Amino acid sequence: MYNPLRQFAFLLGAAFLLIGCSQAAGPTLTAPEALAKAQAAELTLIDIRTPMEWRQTGVAPLALRIDMQNPKGPEGFADKVLTAVQGDKSAPIAIICRTGNRSGYMQQELMARGFSNVYNVSEGMVGSKAGPGWIRRGLPIESCTNC
Predict the structure, then answer these.
(1) What is this structure's pTM?
(2) Around Cβ 7, how many Cβ atoms within 10 Å?
(3) CA 56, 38, 102: angle at the middle one, nearest 5?
(4) Which positions ≥6 away from 142 have C-beta within 8 Å?
(5) What are the C-alpha distances in Å from 107 to residues 6, 11, 70, 96, 143?
């Protein structure tokens, strides 16, 4: 028997699944891989969390702090990242946030603006389904008192 509400729910669910899967995920790194590459000067590590988050947990050594919350939106954030890499949109960049969600989003935003070598540290600072995270792995942390 035809049930319009059931059909609508099915179509809505299928649309969300399609939208979620259509955003191609970019390349990822684990926290230890990001640390090793930053230490070897193979990429620029950028912590995109807020100053309050930096103060709460500390920041990865060598990480630039560029808050993704910019008054000009993602375009303003991208401008700050572009300045950090001296205008080279092909420079290797790894971005990290708390759990990898915001960094995944901003990875897509940067790639849409022509950045071609952007990695997401998908486990983030505190961990996610992608891994235990920077802090639980016992990787080095610097306090951030002037944030």
Answers:
(1) 0.82
(2) 10
(3) 50
(4) 58, 59, 60, 61
(5) 36, 29, 15, 10, 25
